[in-house]
Amino acid sequence: MTYLNIVQCVPYERLQTIMREVFSVPMSQGTIKNLIDGAMRKAAPAIKVLEDMLKRSPVVGFDESGCYNQKRLDWAWIAQTAYVTLCFRATGRAAKVLEERFGDSLEGMVAVTDRHSAYFAIGFLDHQVCLAHILRELEYLTELDGGQEWSVQLAELLRQAIHTRNENPTGVIAKQPWIDRLDELLKHSLTHLREEFERLRKGLTRAKDYIFNFLENPLIPPDNNASERGIRKLKVKQKISGTFRSDAGADAFFALHSIADTAWKNNQSQLNAIASILSL
């Protein structure tokens, strides 16, 4: 029941129908909710382990997304590495959410994020901004004005940097030459183009020290796609079920999804991971 609801995003009403029509087991939606809530309580020690692992991780990806709960806009957060996923709900998307959750451990992390201002209000060890986000913005600008070369040249610079890292996945590559090339492009005046061009140029100027850190540290990815994939299950869940109906239901989904996604990252069965939690 827990696996179908969390991993396969089957809502309570459909689970009720499955139990009745497939297994001839009549079950109320309240009973199903109680089962999920029980799984949430049993998952608490495992969630603490995931949180502690993230606190010791040198590179952590973060992302956040709107989450409707009781027709109220909350925020779903994700903190993740190549081996660990932790999702949780908060009422806001300010820096204090991460500060309250992770405390002083943030000072030892390199944060891989988008350019949301909250991340830069936190005393991380360093940052890496997501190049995939920037490339999407540049593609949009190129479609807006195909006659200019600036967005094309900048996109090519970023792709070359990513290719250089892919060609040398474990080496330390000096980032300063790449920053110098970026500086030349950021010096261009774009006021004759649409305002979106100048807005992006200013944003990249503020973040330029965090664009090529992945070249000097092989542990740092050039994008935050893994965080986006980890939080995408929320969108699938809400597309099927709509808003969460309670804080407990939302928190149960995020906690159990964290366990299932961590199992998937480590080539383990998500069903077995949930079964292991329930057997405690």
Brief sketch in words of this structure:
It is built from 12 helices and 5 strands. The chain has helices at residues 2-6, 12-21, 29-55, 95-102, 131-144, 150-167, 176-186, 195-207, 213-216, 225-241, 247-265, 270-278, and strands spanning 59-69, 72-80, 85-90, 110-113, 126-129.
Topology diagram in text:
Blueprint (H helix, E strand, L loop, with lengths): L1 H5 L5 H10 L7 H27 L3 E11 L2 E9 L4 E6 L4 H8 L7 E4 L12 E4 L1 H14 L5 H18 L8 H11 L8 H13 L5 H4 L8 H17 L5 H19 L4 H9 L2
Parallel strand pairs: 1-4, 4-5
Antiparallel strand pairs: 1-2, 2-3
Helix pairs in contact: 3-11, 5-6, 6-7, 11-12
Question: Overview of this structure, please?
Answer:
- By secondary structure, the chain is α/β, with parallel strands linked by helices.
- Helices cover 55% and strands 12% of the residues.
- It has 12 helices and 5 strands.
- The chain has helices at residues 2-6, 12-21, 29-55, 95-102, 131-144, 150-167, 176-186, 195-207, 213-216, 225-241, 247-265, 270-278; strands at residues 59-69, 72-80, 85-90, 110-113, 126-129.
- The chain has a 5-stranded mixed β-sheet.
- Strand 1 and strand 2 (72-80) form a beta hairpin.
- It is elongated and about 70 Å long.
- The mean pLDDT is 94.
